[in-house]
Amino acid sequence: MRRRRREAIEGYLFLAPALLIIAAFHVWPAIYAFYMSLYRWEVAQEGFLGLRNYQHLLQDGDFLGSVGLTVVYVAGTVPVEMAVGLGVALLLHQRLRLRGVFRLLYFMPYVTSQVAVALVWGWIFNPTYGVANAILETVAGQPRTWLLQPDGVFSSDLPPSLALASIMFVTVWYYLGFHAVVFLSGLTSISDEVIDAARIDGAGGLRMFRDITFPLLSPTTYFLLLVATIGAMTSFNLVYVMSSGQGAGCGGGPLGTTRVAALFVFDRFWCQTELGYASAAAFAVGFVVVVITAINNRIFSRRVFYG
Amino acid sequence: MGRVRRAPLYLALVAGGVVMAFPFYWTLSTSLKSEAGAAAFPPSLLPEEWLFSNYAAAWLSAPFGRYFLNSAIMAVGQVLLSIATCSLAAYALARMRVPGRNAIFGALVATLVIPPEVTLIPNYITIGRLGWYDTYLALIVPFGASVFNVFLLRQAFLQLPTELYEAAVLEGATHFRFLRSVALPLVRPTVAIIALLTAIRAWNDFQWPLIITNTAELRPIQVGLTVFRSDVSTNVQLLMAASVLAVAPVVVLFLLTQRQFIQGIARAGIRG
Questions:
Q1: What value does the CA radius of gyration of chain B take, rounded to a whole number of Å?
Q2: pTM (predicted TM-score)
Q3: A219/B contact by beta carbon, under 8 A
């Protein structure tokens, strides 16, 4: 009896440091963010506002615009990086020579820092000296201003602007190796017997992929879709560094056409010191993330084939 | 499959590979050019003269030594603290009779739904109240434990045979001694993956150090790099050289450990 009690106390002591850090810097701040969002809070805490920050958000064109841009950013990156990543994984799954080298090549961006990557692509997209324009001119196109161009790609006043589209391209470049590697491990875990049996039954090529491989990959696909959607919804570093031009700035340029939700929050928090209002925006976006996680879990846990 | 049918596969992989590799190549190439060479248009693929001195010039034109030291302290500090706290917690959850341990584990897993972005502003306030603004504590402690690490280590501890512990108890070992000298060494592969992922994440971290450091004395490399950009806006070859230096430690670490690293990512699936 006494030994059990001692073991229990010792166990709680073992748990204490980790639980304390997780509680203080992960759980408590999530609650406190909501608390802060109920106040007028600039440099210091001021008057209680109730839900008025949230009411204000719903009427704030800048916030609603940033939500729209986030939707465009997610819709334009996640499906593309997943599709290309799956394609690369299918290629690498063949018994090819130099497989390891290719895998390394595609995965490389994912370990480099997003700040360095953003600076390098900023140089590639430089309107005067950039190699992107040099390549464009050899194929007889007009030079572009890339990251400085607020006009839309499809129509001049529709998002994404060329600036946001360029950042989306870099985002796909950065993450597709991650998708390829996770898809590849999903492909490797499909048993050879299933594939062989299907082949004996006459399946091959496209039909094999549609009826056998893709359904069996669904747990991996679902996992990647969720992780990538949440990651893109809260994406900050790449967008911030590529959109803040020469100075330190607050990002989001040109003309705010790259100010996705995470940059809106950062702008109100860091540059305008409206901490209460920024917390309301962060909490609202976080709430949507949690809801998407929950919905995804419900839909996909029924449809996913865990073979 | 015949050799001929493979050709398009290789072609697709090589074409994609060129797009993937080009920015790396272009960074290296620009970093060796002269100021005039970097500003030439259309740009040349290779430097007309190879100025390795750009690296020394870049290194000396900002306190990069200090930035590197700060990032190293941040990375090592996070790795050591996280392995210490998470292995203790994971061991208690896997191997000790602690009342309510399943509930604790369930609560920990539930906290994974909290998006870290929501915690940014309150954590900034907390750091201010603790008086940790612009200190190493602020760079290390908030990342000194993670549910994910606890989860991975718990899995590893659960796979150790129970006989090991029973034998150790017969010899009079305490839980702590057993954890330190038997259990932890046996789960070294898991510890290595956690250390690797934590170190790389710390080295590449940007937003948090941007808001809680204020001086060059505490500024880690990624923040330093953005400050450097605004200082050398015309000397792009120096900025590229600095970028190469900033990613070099992580790329080397990755190349040395790529097998474990890629397996770790594939198993754990973490997206930075």
A1: 23
A2: 0.92
A3: no
